[in-house]
Amino acid sequence: MLISVLKKESFRGEYSIYIEKYLYLFVDCDHIYTGSTYDLQPVKIHKDNPHLIIDKRSDGSFSVSTNVKELQRGEKSSFFYKKNSETDYSVFTPSQFEYKTYKKILAQEIYPAEAEPYLIKLITAIGGKTEIHSNMIAELDSMKKIDISPCITLRIVPDKNYSFFNDCLCTSFRKYAICSRKR
């Protein structure tokens, strides 16, 4: 499958990929490099989450945007990417729920101050289904809070290629916690 996404650039054995179509296939791959044959730099391609940004402005109105500009323009694709630097890329794969929700919310860039109670209800309703960044912290203090006992489990397993697989499980529900297990 890797052969089908690579394009030979020259007779020297250098290859490139059509980024707009195949970059998502290389998420978390640690064998991607850029540069010339003698000056290779590792490239980090990682998955990132799209999020809504709701900012309360000084006049009381609210601006609404997202970290994925293509979603703001209403584009639809199996994935989007952002080039953070020459050696760092973020790949976004929005869910159907996020496409639908973002399209409705982002249809208007500025909401009047009177929309504040509705925005708070919206954040409360979709908060667990998509990531939201907002400076409305004081207004969100009225949200219901639940005290929980967090649990973090780290699993390190050796690989046959002289490396390790790392897994981290974070849970807030006691019945699913496996951190009390000893080996």
SS-based structural class?
A: alpha+beta
Largest beta-sheet characterization: 4 strands, mixed
Number of strands: 13
Order of helices and strands: HEEHEEEEEHEEHEHEHEE
- By DSSP (H or I, 4+ residues per run), the number of helices equals 6
Shape: globular
Q: Helix proportion of residues, in percent?
A: 10-25%
**How large is the share of residues in beta strands?**
25-35%
Overall mean pLDDT: 75
For the largest beta sheet, what order do the strands appear in spatially? 10-7-6-11
**Span between N and C termini?**
40 Å
- The oligomeric state is single chain
Radius of gyration: 22 Å
Q: Any low-confidence stretches, pLDDT <50, length ≥5? A: 1-8, 174-183
Describe it.
- The chain is built from six helices and 13 strands.
- The chain has helices at 2-5, 19-22, 69-72, 96-105, 116-126, 137-140; strands at 6-8, 15-17, 33-36, 39-42, 44-48, 51-56, 62-66, 80-85, 88-92, 110-111, 131-134, 151-158, 164-171.
- A four-stranded mixed beta sheet has the order 10-7-6-11.
- The relative contact order is 0.12.
